[in-house]
Prior knowledge:
Oligomer: single chain
Amino acid sequence: MTRDDRPDRAAGGGRDGQGTPVGRRVVLGMLAAGAAGVATAPLLQRAYDSALGAAAQKDPTGLSGLLPGGGGFRYYSVTGSVPEKDAHHYRLTVDGLVRHRAGYSLADLCRMPQTRLVRDVQCVTGWRVPGTPFEGVRLSALLDAAGVRPEARAVRFTCFDGAYSESLTLEQARRDDVLVALRMQDKPLAHAHGGPVRLYVAPMYFYKSAKWLSGITVTEQVEPGYWEDRGYDVDAWVGRSNGRDDAPTT
């Protein structure tokens, strides 16, 4: 036991180790302060998350990514800034090797059947957020509506940050645990978390879950994404790729 861990008899003010009685007014004041802290904590957390997300988008050093965000998440962007899209301006396109090209507004996506998944989120850099709810439209539903052509083998995802991209094989994209996500932690996706719409690939490392999703293009073959071009594995199964042995998230 270190000096800081040891109980300090003198701290109580009594020679026999008994604490000095605390007055009723002090107790009531402490309870009021605690209640105020509980009431304001969500507001302070949201303000912190918003400020950290904004800072991360304008941080060329990447140091802001070392700070924990809300719910244990960290904020990453590969560009200096990312434009915000609201419900009036957001559009998701589905094109490529499909019979019916389509464009979806946020309202269109919200009207479609929603799937909710609660899984751990694992980043390839090592941090993990347990039991994180995501909710949205199964990617397979959008692919079925578009009518995938027989020669198609993969799906490419682009983002309205203007830089990020990702890919999955067609088989991977059709999994039940791959979503075009509209909600995270039972709230609409915030801009800093990739909102209003992002990809969520539950069984893979989080870099596969592209933020700020704007395009879904069906292709003949897998095209390496932003981080694959920089050395990350294209098949990013948690615990079975990138030289890591993390516990699976499914």
